[in-house]
Design a protein that fits this description.
three-stranded parallel beta sheet
């Protein structure tokens, strides 16, 4: 129970709340119960065996005074371990931490957003006290060129919640809102459960919802998220610093969640230098997000993303891609030898997915030294302005996939090989437009396809490197031209 003297009328109560946490910890643990009312506080340090219980009607609101988030602490900020402002709720090397109830935790983030905009939009400003502290306390920290601009702001807004090197974390029932930066951001943690949580951040910079980084055994379920950036993002560190810590995020389940008004529904990366593996995403709805499933990285980042399963997803009003797998996140087009700097995407599988009012069904962009590999789409139905665009990929399967477009081919595949495509169709095939377009693609099997709608061209093949393309066991009664050959095609297409 909170000590007497805590204000539920909006007067700052940081010291009393923190003292209560400390005393409960010293006694072996306990619960801080917040009855209905408004509680104003600065940063709080959570400790082992502590529960925060917010009754319905309780609002734990954080101060706008940056002084209340000093001294600096060690945290992971955008994939780099550094010293900066304390997260609003912070724990380090602790266990058995619970945040529960039907109350609200309000990060009161506007002052942080405003200061970030001020620094970002004006050149040659004198450094503030906080920027000088950031500079002094992070000497020698390596930053890749692509991120130097952000790091040079020397102003790192804190996450609303970060547990650092903790285990057994439970967050359930509460509402988080107005986060200064990422909202729920466990780092290097084991056994994290986030259940029945609501997160609401208005249009605001980098206010992601749930971002586990270098964590294992994470369970996210029954959450409702509408934020200023990505709804849920899985990360594991950035570049040299991420490889130094070398801690993957693994064994993650995401289920029964609704995502609204975010940049991405579920995103992996781009900070993934420690690797990300064994992830399942199921039974979710993405409505009005910029993208659905997005996996992103870049040359120089390194790390392996593998063993990903996405199933039973409904998407609506997706402003960009329903699926995005991108190894050009920082737009680096210089080919490198394969090394620890080389990112890898492999063994990723999507099934039972419906998308309506989608801008682009999917974009998959591999790099020449490391194509995206071993990916499958099964039982997918997408209605989109544009279809799939696939570059530099191998070992793909599309099974029972219907992509209905308003512009261009349903599938445009270039510089790829080892593709199997079964029961591919469009609900409304376009005139004078192929359903599938191949450019410099080899080792392709198109089998068991029976377009039910009148289709002008099923396959258009072009490119001097296109070869070993086989069409077997297809029924083309409703197809005017089964195969159209481009002017640069050198090899024969094999028809049954």
């Amino acid at each position: 129970m909170l000590e007497e003297g805590v204000s539920n009328e909006g007067r700052k109560s940081t010291e009393i709340i923190q003292n209560t946490i400390d005393k409960a910890f010293e006694a072996g643990g306990g619960t801080l119960y917040f009855p209905a009312g408004n509680y104003l506080t600065g940063a709080l340090k959570l400790k082992s065996n502590i529960t925060l219980d917010l009754e319905a009607g309780a609002v734990l609101k954080f101060s706008e005074d940056f002084e209340d988030y000093l001294p600096f602490v060690q945290l992971r900020w955008e994939g780099t371990v550094l010293n900066s402002f304390s997260p609003l709720l912070y724990a380090k090397n602790a266990e058995n931490i619970t945040i529960t109830g039907r109350g609200v935790i309000d990060g009161n983030g506007k002052a942080w957003w405003t200061e970030m905009y001020r620094i970002e939009s004006t050149e040659n400003l004198p450094l503030t006290r906080y920027q000088k502290m950031t500079q002094e306390q992070n000497k020698g920290l390596e930053t890749a060129p692509y991120y130097e601009r952000t790091r040079n702001f020397l102003f790192h807004r804190p996450p609303l919640f970060q547990a650092f090197q903790c285990k057994n974390i439970l967050i359930e029932g509460v509402t988080f809102q107005n986060s200064p930066f990422w909202t729920i951001n466990p780092a290097f943690c084991d056994n994290v459960t986030i259940d029945k949580v609501t997160i609401f951040n208005p249009p605001s910079p980098n206010t992601d919802g749930i971002n586990p980084t270098s964590c294992k055994n994470v369970h996210i379920s029954n959450c409702h998220i509408s934020v200023g950036d990505d709804c849920i993002t899985i990360k594991s560190g950035r570049d040299t610093d991420g490889r130094k810590w070398a801690t993957p995020t693994e064994n993650v389940t995401i289920t029964n969640c609704t995502m609204l008004s975010g940049h991405g529904g579920v995103v992996i990366g781009s900070e993934m230098s420690g690797g990300i593996k064994k992830i399942t995403i199921s039974n979710c709805v993405f409505d009005d997000t910029d993208r659905g499933i997005r996996i992103k990285s870049a040359r120089g980042r390194g790390g392996v993303v593998e063993d990903i399963r996405v199933s039973n997803i409904v998407m609506n009003n997706i402003k960009q891609e329903a699926f995005m797998l991108n190894l050009f996140y920082d737009k680096n087009t210089t080919e490198e030898s394969v090394s620890e700097r080389t990112p890898v995407f492999r063994n990723i599988h999507f099934s039972n997915i419906t998308g309506t009012a989608v801008n682009t069904a999917g974009r998959i962009l591999g790099i020449s030294e490391m194509p995206v590999q071993n990916v499958s789409f099964s039982d997918v139905n997408i209605e989109a302005e544009k279809g799939f665009e696939i570059h530099t990929a191998k070992d793909f399967q599309f099974n029972n996939v219907r992509v209905t477009t308003k512009l261009g081919a349903s599938f445009e595949i270039e510089n790829a090989h080892q593709f199997v495509m079964t029961n591919i169709s469009s609900k409304k095939p376009l005139k004078n437009t192929p359903l599938i377009k191949l450019i410099n693609v080899s080792d392709v099997l198109l089998t068991s396809n029976f377009p039910l709608e009148n289709t002008a061209v099923f396959l258009e093949a072009d490119g001097a490197e296109t070869r070993n393309v086989y069409l077997k066991n297809n029924v083309f009664d409703n197809v005017s031209i089964p195969v159209k050959s481009g002017t640069n095609l050198k090899s024969k297409i094999n028809l049954n």
